[in-house]
Amino acid sequence: MFKTHERFIEYYKRIGAKIEVYKGIIWTEYQKIVQPLGPAKLDYSVSEEEAKLLLSRFPGSLLIRYTTGFSNIAESNEWYAVIQDKFLDLEDIPSKNRSEIRRGLRNCKVSLVDAELVADKGYEVFIAAFERYRDVKRPQIEKEEFKRKIDITRDFEDIIDYWGVFYQNKLIAYATVYKYDNIEADYSTIKFHPNYLKLYPSYALFYTMNKYYLGEKHFEYVNDGFRNILHQTNIQNFLIEKFKFRKEYVNLKIIYKPWINYLLDTTFPVRYLFGKLNPKLQALYKLEEIRRICDESNK
Predict the structure, then answer these.
(1) Which residues contact 258 (CB under 8 A, 6 or more apart)?
(2) What's the fold here for domain 86-219?
(3) Do the beta carbons of residue 292 and residue 251 sit within 8 Å?
(4) Apex CA 168: angle with CA 164 and CA 174, to 5°?
(5) CA–CA dist 153, 160 (Å, integer)
(6) d(Cα 117, Cα 240) in Å, to the nearest integer?
(7) Which of 240, 295, 299 is closest to 79 using CA atoms?
(8) Which is the most buried residue in 9, 79, 222, 232, by most CB within 10 A?
């Protein structure tokens, strides 16, 4: 595994998150999905029996999802991480995008910040960012709880970075980055205040972070996460178009709770009808569709 995984175990325990460590792999739960924590390039394969055992240790979860690493997988798999492994300086970027980045850098100041600043100033940005998402409920988290969760990370600066974007000394965007050794910088959370998007803060932020992690710290790659099938931001397409991120295809493996497996098997032929009932159900059908494509591609 990666060298700093013990620190991530400590961090997740500190925030009270449910984790399981199995054969050196950290497994966490997010939105009722059990998944491994670590660089996307690694192989997290487990047997079906081991996957079922892990799934049983997360009573409220619906499925376990993992991938088998970067290995020249065919695009037909349709599951991918959105990554960049080379810093592109301004002269390497098309002129239109170069102009947008320069505007962002003129309008905004981007810098590494400490957890205390995000805890004190980030809540307004966090709440306002959800105004851009249709059909997504505003998170039910009060300012003090937001502050408490950020404050915990003050002891984990070796594995978690915060970036702030400022306009006239006002925080208008922030990012949280998880660092897995010098393998991967995971752009975990990025929030922009919608009132300031005309200042091009996203261009300034991503250019500066890419320069830092790829150009200065020489991480193998930066990662904006796996394919997004539910969240309504268009950030992954933005990174591909503006900063030449690419889709790194991987094999997707899923084991479901028995009743979820039964539901999908019996209703999959009419998924387009049932998916209209609920966005999360629609996302589950899409995930199953991709899983079947991956399985078929590897026969």
Answers:
(1) none
(2) Aminopeptidase (3.40.630)
(3) no
(4) 15
(5) 7
(6) 30
(7) 295
(8) 222
Check pLDDT > 80 for residue 139: no
Domain boundaries, the chain: 5-82+250-297, 86-219
- Render pLDDT for 4-24 as a digit per residue (tens, 0 to 9): 999 999 999 999 999 999 999
Rounded distance between C-alpha atoms, residue 154 and residue 220, angstroms? 25
The amino acid that residue 269 corresponds to is P
Tokens 């590897």 label which residue?
Answer: 298
Query: Mean pLDDT throughout 157-166?
Result: 98
- Interatomic CA distance for residues 52 and 49, integer angstroms: 5
pLDDT bin (cut points 50, 70, 90) of residue 237 is very high
What was the pLDDT predicted at 67?
95
Query: What is the pLDDT, as a whole number, of residue 232?
Result: 55
Q: What is the mean pLDDT of residues 117-146?
A: 84
Does pTM surpass 0.90? yes
